[in-house]
Amino acid sequence: MKPSAISIQNLKKSYGETTALKGIDIEINDGEFFGLLGPNGAGKTTTINILTGLVRKDSGSTDIFGHDTISNYRFTRSQIGISAQEFAQDWFFPIEKLLYFQAGYYGISKAKAKSKVDELFERLGLEKKRQSRLRQLSGGMKRRFQIAKALVHDPKILILDEPTAGVDVKLRHELWQYFRELHQTGKTILLTTHYIEEAEMLCDQVAIIDNGEVITKGTPKNLTGKQGDSGITINLSDTEVDLKNHLKEFSYSLDDERIHFVSSDPEADLPKIINKITKAGCHIQRVETTKSSLEDVFLKLTGKGINE
Ligand code: ATP
């Protein structure tokens, strides 16, 4: 069987009195877009820093493509590119030079790195800024440079730690598009975010983490379906017709002239339900759908909002 791209088992970490990770388990398949979603201080950056060797774990295991990140650190680090949350850079060199330095850390010569460097400057809209120093870039440009730096050695795994923190809406959407493209080329992506929409829009799988623990995981659709309150409410103009036989396959409750259907996927179920009701000869007056978000799931499981 193919090993997971990232395998984290029973990972624990404390900083003095503060327990950052209480034993988390996460498996990320090769080629998956995985979201680690949680509020500030949940333990997301600590997890990433352990994977990349910046923080020492207390116990548990972290493997990249089946190789332990400590005993096989050279191999495992070569597989990962990380766009960190904080800008820790040399502020005085032109950013083009910084990208070549970064490639050099992975043993890639300037001549070999050139086409990748050109491609990244072009794709991330930094072409005109190649000779600028980092301190001369805007916040959004710094964020884009950070992503270019993570990709210059063409890693199989891309780790994005809050990649759209502090960027405007337009750039956020452009970056989402770029991340989707990278995912389509087969990269495994681990994204940490506290933007619910970001995780919902991009990720195949999501783990919601709070207080150093994974509280639930699954596809965004399954999570909102299983633990959210998605559904469809239909107001009928007559209740004389016996609908029971027609609606056998659905889970619903009838309250006077209103029927409420529990549905994990209201968009898919709505046409089927309308079809059954009209076939039964009933007239529909009003239709309302409610779709839960991962925010609702988080609220239900923890009793607080993710960005509180
Ligand atoms: P954010 O979204 O704010 O970055 P996070 O989910 O990434 O949060 P971490 O940065 O991993 O969370 O922090 C988890 C916990 O560990 C927090 O309580 C934090 O204060 C603590 N912590 C993190 N790094 C250190 C450190 N170097 N020394 C002491 N405590 C730390």
Give an overview in words.
- A six-stranded mixed sheet has the order 6-7-8-3-9-10, sandwiched between helices.
- β7, α6 and β8 form a beta-alpha-beta unit.
- α3 crosses α4 and α8 crosses α10.
- It is elongated.
- It has ten helices and 14 strands.
- The protein folds into two domains: 219 residues, 3-Layer(aba) Sandwich (Rossmann fold), CATH 3.40.50.300; 62 residues, 2-Layer Sandwich (Alpha-Beta Plaits).
- The mean pLDDT is 90.
- The chain is of the alpha/beta class and 308 residues long.
- Helices cover 34% and strands 27% of the residues.
- Adenosine-5'-triphosphate binds next to β2 and α1.
Can you give the helix content as a percent range? 25-40%
CATH fold annotation of the largest domain: Rossmann fold
Counted up, domains total 2
Alpha carbon gap, first and last residue: 42 Å
Quick one: CATH superfamily of the largest domain? P-loop containing nucleotide triphosphate hydrolases
Total number of beta strands: 14
Q: Give a short account of the largest sheet.
A: 6 strands, mixed
Strand fraction band?
Answer: 25-35%
Q: H/E order of the elements?
A: EEEHEEHEHHHEHEHEEHEEEHEH
User: Which second-level CATH architecture of the largest domain applies?
Assistant: 3-Layer(aba) Sandwich
CATH class of the largest domain, named: Alpha Beta
Query: What would you report as the Rg, rounded to the nearest angstrom?
Result: 24 Å
| Spatial strand arrangement across the major sheet | 6-7-8-3-9-10
What is the SS-derived class? alpha/beta
Number of helices: 10
Contiguous runs where pLDDT drops below 50 for at least 5 residues = none
Mean pLDDT: 90
Bound ligand species: adenosine-5'-triphosphate
The coarse overall form would be: elongated
